[in-house]
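re: ur msg from earlier - yeah i can do the zinc ion complex, just paste it... oh wait u already did. ok heres what im feeding in:
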Amino acid sequence: MEELTPTAQTEEVNVCNTCASEFFVHTSKMKNICPECAHLIYNHKRCFHKFENERCSKCYWNGKTSAYALKLKQKALKKQKNARINVLIGIIFTAISLIQSLSGLLFGGISYWGLFGLLIFIPFLMRSIQYKKQLDKEYNIL
Ligand SMILES: [Zn+2]
Ligand SMILES: [Zn+2]
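and the outut:
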């Protein structure tokens, strides 16, 4: 058994059944799961940890994420990364199509490739931005 800090003696402490860290019961929405795991797995409000002596002084979490929670976090980060790449692709191709259309007009014609590109990549860009926003809201890991 680890020695508890003075604050831990005045707070009700429970052990997280996912990462096995002790945590202050009142800081988590879930009785047997610490705020960190509850955030990663169940998307509850996170604790913005403040580490003192290798423990968060707010929720008493020990900073050791379980393999399961870590895997979920990595998956979430990967999804967010892919979403960001899609937005970037959307921006680049929309810009190229726009330039094509404009230069088409400049030379007195209509660039069908440019218009075709705009028709495809503007909706693609909109969808990508929306998806990215949705992910950011969902995971709230920034
Ligand atoms: Zn935990
Ligand atoms: Zn904390």
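cool cool. Strands lie at 13-15, 22-24, 51-52, 55-56. ping me if u need the other ligands too
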